[in-house]
Amino acid sequence: MTVLLVLFTFATFLLIDYFRTRHAVVQRALQASMAKQGTMPRLQPALVGGFAVPENLRYHPGHTWALSESPNLVRVGMDDFASKLTGKVESITLPQREQWIRQGQKMCTVHRDGCAVDMVSPIEGSVSNINEAILHDPKLALRDPYGEGWLLTVQAPDAKTSFRNLLGGPLARWWTEEAASRLQRRMPMALGALAQDGGIALDNLTAQIQDQDWLPLAKEFFLS
Asked: Between the CA of residue 143 and those of 1, 80, 146, 210, what are the distances in Å?
């Protein structure tokens, strides 16, 4: 009887391990498929200071985000704060595939009415893919920054170290709230903009300021 009990217990653990391993394989296959197709799962963001802050992302203080799709593949883009602070865009210059980018250094350049401002990378690694749709329709990055407006994917050999330097959870929400408050102090007209639509920031917060005033503001928040 004891032998049968031991065998039954052993078989049970084997079955549990089998289904757990199978689930992990399916998840990795789905992630690989999404990366190959250039699609993203629809995120359910929290609203902080008038800006969307999805819980499953990690954020760089320069207002870019990172999403781990596999141990070494990371998708990145600009956050909702950056999209609304940019407001309008003529084009976005993306890096070349296989180009090495460093965390906290230039990742792409946003062009607006003759002004250009760099955005920094939240991750370090080699660019594996860029969002071609952004090159044809740069406003996509502003309309849907966490979805179809992603910017590029990166092969990050030391992704864990990079992610430890990013903000997430309560810290990300606090940082977004602080950035919203600082923007309101720098640009009082944003107070009314943030009060629209139940507290959701308007798409173009900087519509009422001159382009020459927008550039230093963007550089301050984008850390460029």
From this structure: 66, 9, 9, 22
- Please tell me the distance from the alpha carbon of residue 15 to that of residue 13, in angstroms, as a whole number: 5
Residues 26-55 have pLDDT tens digits of: 344 434 444 444 444 444 568 888 899 999
Below-70 pLDDT ranges, the chain? 1-45, 189-204, 208
CB 119 within 8 A of CB 108: yes
How far is it, in rounded angstroms, from Cα 157 to Cα 132?
24
| Cα(134)–Cα(151) distance, integer angstroms | 7
Q: What residues contact 83, with CB distance under 8 A and at least 6 apart?
A: 141, 142, 143, 145, 149, 203
For 207, the token pair is 């519509």
